Fold each of these.
Amino acid sequence: MADNVTPRVRVPRDAKAGEAITIKTLISHQMESGQRKDGDGNLIPRSIINRFTCDFNGQNVIDITMEPAISTNPYFEFQSLVPESGTFTFTWYDDDGSVYTDTKDIAVS
Amino acid sequence: MNLTRRETVLLAAGASVAVMVPFRAFADAAENIAAFTGGAAVGEGGITLTAPEIAENGNTVPVDVDAPGAVEIMVLAVGNPNPAVGTFKFGPLAAAQMASTRIRLSKTQNVMAIAKMADGSFVQATKEVKVTIGGCGG
């Protein structure tokens, strides 16, 4: 169903301890809303990513529940605190049960 | 114009359907709000919803929500077939209770954001977005 799903994430390479950093995420996904019809007038079944989470060293930053009204290639921008060096884990949950993950390391000085 | 009894009944039925349709969409949004707030009163202020005044393409409308001190923000598109858009839950490491994303709007309508604050109160913000081409692909 969901082909060529590629997560893309932008996180600064380094930061100062306790600094607020901006994270931008994008994942290529059709996000079929379940409202559209194909050429023969049949409804195309819904197929979306329904949840996105971002964690840093096991602590949650943001947890987003998505409905079909989120655009194709869902994009999110949010801010996180970085108390120490570590790894951001980004997870997307698809309607079809697939889970897409990406990780980014950040060095804190 | 002479109407038979049958035509009059049909007209009346048609009119009531026309009235029901927008009411129905509103009821759906109200259900979503009730499910989120648990029936608590929703105040104003303390939340900022940024959206364009006119969106040429209803398929990708950039939306920003910012509510300092919120634990959760729900975004609704009141005029969509399914008014729920998404819910943002902020974890302990969120630096600011803000997020931006892009949403689909089926037609000109109000976009609404409701934030649940740390003390359990709720605040909302509404912004009307004029949509030139709807994003439902119908």
Amino acid sequence: MSSSQMLKGILDGCLLAIIQKGETYGYEMIEKLELYGFRMVSEGSIYPVLLRLQKEGFVKSVMKESPSGPKRKYYTLTPAGEQEYLEFKERWDSLSHSVNRLVKEEK
Amino acid sequence: MVLSKDSQEFIANLKLYLMTSGKKDSEIKEIAEELRGHLEDAESRGKSLATVTGGSPEAYMKNISSEMATDFYGLIKLMPMFILLVIAYFITGSAVRGDLSFSLLKLIAFPLIGGASIGAYIFAFRKMASKKWSKKKEFTIFVSIQLITVGLMSAVLLLDIFYFEPFYTPSREVMWIIAAIGVIIFIIGAIWSKTWITVILPLFLFGPDFIMSFMQVDEMTGLYVNMGVFVGGFILFMLYLLIQNKKQNPHHS
């Protein structure tokens, strides 16, 4: 299983985490994800997720003109999004804890 | 910052794909603009379209489309105008020429052919947007649909002449009224769709008949004039598309 396939299931949560750190737009999210060591197979894969997060009411967005360069769509978390992020964190903690225990256990 | 031709094409195709998938106009514009911004940022840093779409634009378009709600209400709103326009196309010409009649066959067959033809066009547009077809293939497919539609309609007309009795043939005055209603529908259609196509196309198709109905012309001359205007109009339309294309992509032929 490639890491991008593994990422698929948790990309929603990762984007919530990035947006939770402050208002941001698509391309900047990619740059931030890369800073944390994520390598995306396709950068565009965040947009279907962002559409879904918006549909579910976890994020809201606003179009802004940028002084140099293209118009950008900035995302922020809604209260429901904050709540979802907390729940994601809990789920991730318990999952990663279990996986770690499993794979790091000496024979 | 000017986008590469590939990226521009991708954005245009994405819009077409989402449009023919029945998504909301405002939402299509929003995602297209967002992706255009991303592509501009990416290209200004030397990345290619493939790093954004992941190599398969088709799969990516499907992926985006699946996360957008289909605007059924919007589609239903479009239907009445659409149906009116199709009916107007079918009967205005005959009404102007004075050979309008209604028979059971026409009443059943024309809506079926019209519906099937529109369905085929929408299907072809969707495929065209997501697959990389050569210009030749695009042209062949669209001309084929057109030819099959015209062929089927001609077949129905022939059958109708030989085997079906019209159950209603309006008087000449009523035909003019029907033609006038058709014209009004075309004008409303133009205002509604904010394009001139629903006015210009009927003008070429039915205009010559209208003018000739006031003159004493024999049938053959009429036929030639009709053909001439139709072919001329077609060439003009193609030229117009070509010039538009040049204007939008000044760097490419």
